[in-house]
């Protein structure tokens, strides 16, 4: 009896393996789209990425690709996989970017970076890069409907930079590096947040142990 159960298990495992590794090809754009949606419902982003490659190879300019790219970008943003989200937005811009939607795509890319921004002490380059992108975006699209949203993001980035500079200044003061302290103190005094009454954000204790200067 044990041998019978073992054989059944091996058969099912083998069947599942064949199914999992079976490559799909020569599908209609609709079939590819449905497969990708099924992958996302199964929370299998790796398969969704693979099936997108198949879809894009067989249907280079199909209208369904436009929707698929946005869906995959959002799915990766939801999973905090922002580099992959950015990849799909770049693909969208190459294939379907027009003068009518380019501001939306650039906004979406900025939002992906904003969502990726978690800890200022770890993401200084991301913060500065994002601020530059927002400045460029507002200059290129002064009347865009996304202006209030990116301005809010910029405000939060500036606030994060202020607290970062404040922490660095405090570190230099505590270590008697007066010249460096004066440089950062000057930056703080020039900030729009200087002399404003604000509640300073606090790190959770399990992060504060490792990230407090």
Task: Walk me through this protein's architecture.
Helices cover 74% and strands 0% of the residues. The protein has 213 residues and is mainly α. Helix 4 packs antiparallel against helix 5. It starts with a helix and ends with a helix. The relative contact order is 0.06. Residues 1-21 and 204-213 have low confidence and may be disordered.
Note the topology.
Elements (H helix, E strand, L loop, with lengths): L1 H20 L7 H13 L3 H14 L4 H16 L3 H15 L5 H15 L7 H17 L6 H28 L3 H13 L14 H7 L2
Summarize the structure.
The chain is mainly α and 213 residues long.
Find the structural class using helix and strand composition.
Answer: mainly alpha
Supply Rg: 24 Å
How many E strands? 0
Outline type: elongated
pLDDT < 50 stretches: 1-21, 204-213
Helix-strand string? HHHHHHHHHH
Structure keywords:
213 residues, mainly alpha, 10 helices, disordered N terminus, disordered C terminus
């Amino acid at each position: 009896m044990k041998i019978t159960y073992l054989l059944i298990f091996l058969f099912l495992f083998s069947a599942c393996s064949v199914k999992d590794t079976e490559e799909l090809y020569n599908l209609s754009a609709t079939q590819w789209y449905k497969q990708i949606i099924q992958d996302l419902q199964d929370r299998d982003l790796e398969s969704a990425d693979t099936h997108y490659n198949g879809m894009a190879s067989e249907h280079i300019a199909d209208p369904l690709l436009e929707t698929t790219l946005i869906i995959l970008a959002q799915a990766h943003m939801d999973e905090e996989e922002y580099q992959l989200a950015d990849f799909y937005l770049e693909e969208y811009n190459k294939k379907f970017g027009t003068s009518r939607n380019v501001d939306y795509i650039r906004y979406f890319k900025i939002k992906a970076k904003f969502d990726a921004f978690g800890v200022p002490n770890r993401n200084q380059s991301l913060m500065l890069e994002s601020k530059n992108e927002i400045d460029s975006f507002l200059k290129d699209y002064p009347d865009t409907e996304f202006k209030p949203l990116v301005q809010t993001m910029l405000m939060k980035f500036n606030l994060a930079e202020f607290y970062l500079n404040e922490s660095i200044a405090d570190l230099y003061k505590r270590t008697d590096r007066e010249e460096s302290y004066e440089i950062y103190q000057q930056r703080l005094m020039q900030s729009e947040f200087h002399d404003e009454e604000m509640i300073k954000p606090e790190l959770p204790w399990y992060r504060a142990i490792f990230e407090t200067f």
